[in-house]
Automatic annotation (TrEMBL), chain A:
It comes from Phytohabitans aurantiacus. This is Branched-chain amino acid ABC transporter permease. Keywords: Cell membrane, Membrane, Signal, Transmembrane, Transmembrane helix. The chain crosses the membrane at residues 31-52, 64-89, 95-114, 152-170, 197-219, 231-260, 272-289. The keyword Acetylation does not apply. The keyword Cell inner membrane does not apply.
From TrEMBL, chain B:
This is Branched-chain amino acid ABC transporter permease. CDD domains: TM_PBP1_LivH_like. It is found in: Cell membrane. InterPro entries: ABC_transp_permease (IPR001851), BCAA_transport_permease (IPR052157). It holds the Pfam family BPD_transp_2. Belongs to the binding-protein-dependent transport system permease family. LivHM subfamily. The keyword Transport applies. Keywords: Amino-acid transport, Cell membrane, Membrane, Transmembrane, Transmembrane helix, Transport.
Length: 301, 291
């Protein structure tokens, strides 16, 4: 799969010159959700905490970014800090649980965050949403990102940098510890590793990544509403992560792109029947994926 | 007394709401605790019951009984069908189970909207209880009082079934040690079928009887699923009593909490979850993490 990365990167950079502005904006949104999916993959695949709740720090970061400065870097850092802070606050809810219990708790966290977002009108604009956010400039002195192409390239650059950092970190001891916690927690504990502390760090880091993606959402979409963080988005992300191969952070972005493309294609196919077809897609994927993965694995070995 | 007075009605509403959540959430506890399945389509089963009630109800007791039979039957069949669909998924594969049940919830919700329209449907309650009752100087909806009595009876019955019958013994054993239950010759597939059907029946019962409280509409399934998830998180999987207590607490937060502090209710749910989970993080939660 490695040989695919270079051409994919080339295509991603060239895309805004080849596609129309609408497609470019759609691609930018895919990148943003892909970054959230990467944080889901970090928790679900690498650390072994299956999550449906990364939309919550994503939302926290997005609303923080919408109220912060018009300089991209400051906005990104604010959003990442708020996302991390949200994750830190909810850490005790998540890191002591394992398996399906995590799935349930994170789902409740995500849903409650959406409910809170639709009630806290003074900050979030309620269900009407927030609109008319000014486009930021990436750094002091640089021009404002006023075209779809510029915003897309900005998102691409940020996502690329974050992914490189995450992948590099996961190749080192950090990744090894997390995979150790996932595969054999008892043995990690026996060798003196503070498993819950590792998981807490991973959870907070994933919250920071999701928060950062929230800032990108504000930049690329320039509109926020609680529907951007709904349960269906969380489920789409999880499906994207599973398709991308749960352990792979880069694969999560590819998987999310496939899922979002399928969703848009399906809802265009039969207008008004989108959710029905999407539900069918989930069911088919649930049956087809394990077999597909098994076949791939046996083909490799 | 004057200070308590305005909150009497919300508090009583909270009891009705909490008992409704208890019936739904105990279905979720069953499928989650016994079969290890996070059934994201549980709210959809409730919605089926509520839609049946809205369609059949015409203000007579006979119609309510008919709706109860039809709604519970449909939701039970739905639960059994889910169990059939989940048969191909290995027991420990939570991600695939979640994706599958979410797909069912999405498709099912869309089919319900296609069949019944995208509006919130009104539900008629039997005429004899469709009038306000005088309660310490306040008018209170008669149906809700009846509902409180019926749901309390259901809770008692559930407690008796779990603690006094052979089926209940099996359920408790399967929560404690599913592998040992399988070793003793009880087929896990049959346990799953029974549990999901029973869980569907509970959701359907709640849907039909609770339709005048949480009515059928496009967002019903999500609301019910979320609130019953919070109940399960708060109450744990240990006992019927724990679930009941948690459900009443969530009911009060959703009604009395909203009356006292309108904007803080979702945050209150967060806070309650955080407090309970932090308190039991080292003791109880170990017991109910299946992995």
């Amino acid at each position: 799969m490695k040989w695919l990365i270079a051409p994919a990167l080339l295509a991603a950079v060239a895309a805004p010159w080849l596609a129309d502005p609408y497609t470019t904006a759609t691609l930018a949104r895919i990148l943003v959700l892909g970054l959230v999916a990467a944080s889901v993959a970090l928790l679900t695949g690498v650390a072994g905490l299956p999550t449906l709740g990364q939309t919550a720090p994503f939302a926290a970061g997005a609303y923080a970014a919408a109220h912060s400065s018009s300089v991209g870097v400051v906005q990104l850092l604010t959003a990442a800090c708020v996302g991390a802070a949200f994750a830190a606050l909810t850490t005790p809810l998540v890191v002591y649980a394992r398996g399906v219990v995590v799935l349930m708790i994170t789902l409740a966290i995500g849903e409650l965050a959406v409910t809170a977002a639709s009630r806290w009108r003074s900050v979030t604009g309620g269900t009407d949403g927030l609109a008319g956010m000014a486009s930021p400039r990436p750094l002091w002195g640089l021009p404002v990102l006023d075209t779809d192409r510029a915003r897309y390239l900005y998102a691409l650059a940020v996502v690329g940098i974050v992914l490189c950092v995450v992948v590099l970190l996961l190749r080192g001891p950090a990744g090894m510890y997390l995979r150790g916690c996932r595969d054999d927690e008892a043995r990690m504990r026996a060798s003196g590793h503070p498993v819950n502390a590792y998981l807490a760090i991973a959870y907070i880091a994933a919250g920071a990544i999701a928060g950062l993606a929230g800032s990108l959402l504000v930049t690329t979409q320039q509109y926020l509403s609680p529907a951007d963080f709904g349960f269906d988005i969380a489920a789409l992300l999880l499906l994207g992560v599973v398709i991308g191969g749960a352990g792979s952070v880069v694969g999560a972005i590819a998987g999310t792109a496939v899922v979002l493309a399928a969703r848009d294609w399906l809802s265009g196919l039969l207008p008004g029947r989108g959710p029905l077809l999407l539900g069918a897609l989930f069911i088919v994927a649930a049956y087809a994926l394990p077999r597909l993965r098994f076949r791939l694995r046996s083909a490799v070995t | 007394m004057d200070r308590v007075d305005p909150y009497l009605i919300p508090a009583l509403d909270g009891v009705a709401y909490g008992l409704l959540l208890f019936v739904v959430a105990s279905g979720l506890v069953l499928s989650f605790g016994v079969a290890g399945i996070l059934n994201l389509a549980h709210g959809t089963l409730y919605a089926i019951g509520a839609y049946v009630a809205a369609t059949l109800s015409d203000g007579s007791w006979l119609a309510l009984l008919l709706a109860l039979a039809a709604g519970v039957g449909a939701a039970t069949a739905g639960g059994a069908a889910l169990s059939g669909m989940l048969a191909a998924v290995p027991r420990g594969d939570h991600l695939t189970q979640a994706l599958l049940t979410f797909g069912v919830a999405l498709a099912g919700g869309s089919l319900l909207v296609m069949a019944f329209g995208a509006e919130n449907l009104p539900v008629r309650v039997p005429a004899t209880v469709d009038r306000p009752v005088d309660l310490a100087g306040h008018a209170y909806a008669g149906y809700r009082l009846v509902f409180i009595v019926v749901a309390a009876a259901l809770a008692l019955a559930l407690h008796a079934v779990v603690n006094r019958t052979r089926a209940g013994m099996l359920v408790r054993a399967a929560v404690d040690d599913p592998d040992m239950v399988a070793c003793l010759g009880v087929s896990p597939a049959r346990v799953r079928l029974g549990v999901l059907a029973a869980s569907g029946a509970l959701a359907g019962t709640a849907g039909v009887l609770g339709a005048p409280i949480i009515g059928p509409g496009p967002s019903t399934a999500a609301t019910v699923l979320l609130l019953s998830l919070v109940v399960v998180v708060l109450g744990g999987l240990g006992s019927v009593g724990g679930t009941l207590l948690a459900a009443l607490a969530v009911g009060e937060i959703q009604t009395l909490g909203v009356a006292l502090a309108p904007t803080a209710a979702p945050f209150l749910l967060f806070a309650a979850m955080a407090a309970v989970l932090a308190a039991r993080s080292h003791g109880l939660i170990r017991r109910w993490s299946p992995a």
